[in-house]
Amino acid sequence: MIGEHLGIQKIFDLQKWERLQDSLASVTKLAILTVDYKGNAVTDHSGCQSFCKAVRQDQDLLPYCQKCDSRGGLEAVRSNKPYIYLCHYNIIDIAVPVIIDDKYIGAVMAGQVRLSDPSGSAELEQILTSKNKKLYDEKWEKLKDHYADLPVMSYEEILKISEMLSLLCSYIVEEALNKNLLADLFEQASASGTSPRLSDILPGYAMQNLESARKEMTHILAALPTGSDSRERCANAVLQPAFDYLYTHKSESVPLKKMADLCHLSPSYFSRLFAKETGESYSGYTARLKIEWAKTLLENTDLPIARISGELGFNEPGYFIKTFKKYENITPAVYRKYYKS
19, 136, 209, 324: least surrounded by Cβ within 10 Å? Predict the structure, then answer.
């Protein structure tokens, strides 16, 4: 069995993976850590939040974190899919299993966020709790300010990110297996004096699977929260439903009247409150926001310009290009070429 001699360090090129892991943490706002099958970290903690840093540096609390990491990975293995749960401090974590030939070799752990709607956690398991309430009460005074700084996400956003991470892990595993198969076949061929056929080394179905996974990952990334997604929190709480809707329905072009209705305001009063809150008109603010999202997609995906236009709710690519140039003084294609050069 292939999995018998492959550990996670052999599947993941850890030096390259850590750079990608850092980028993923920056884009998604989740902290990410990769562990082996025992729950031991094999990478540094990318994007670790100050709250979790403080908890993990506390020798009384660290064992609880390690138990959560280990148990989360095992639960993910049982279901053979990403496992979303609550840690011992009741914040969201995700375990994405890395499995080869039905053998669990490790996991990508992500999370350290709070839910924007706490009622959404009703069906999630708190994977570990402590009976030492006195200990937690004593620690809380030093931790509560850090807790308030944790990122806030909707459950829908967390699901999308967990799916993306799962596809990414599958892609890496398949590619690594093909490389190891290639090495094994050439080693055998060298010993026997024959040359393996390309069709034996890279069977067509495997390449098709890799391409399919790549396309699926690109599609999911288009729907993920972008680097500019530090969600607006309003001084005027009446407007919060409008901002929440904007950030969770990026593919829509939402008319002002619909936003006003969401906030139970007349369109004219909504416009005045919105301008006071943001310093911009509603149309100007949403256009600028969509261009920020577009820049992240141009930087992090190979999606065609027309597809990005559609993903962000523009009626047609020509209008998207015109709007992008208005804010950035260059076209989307030139921006992508310049960024990736």
Answer: 19
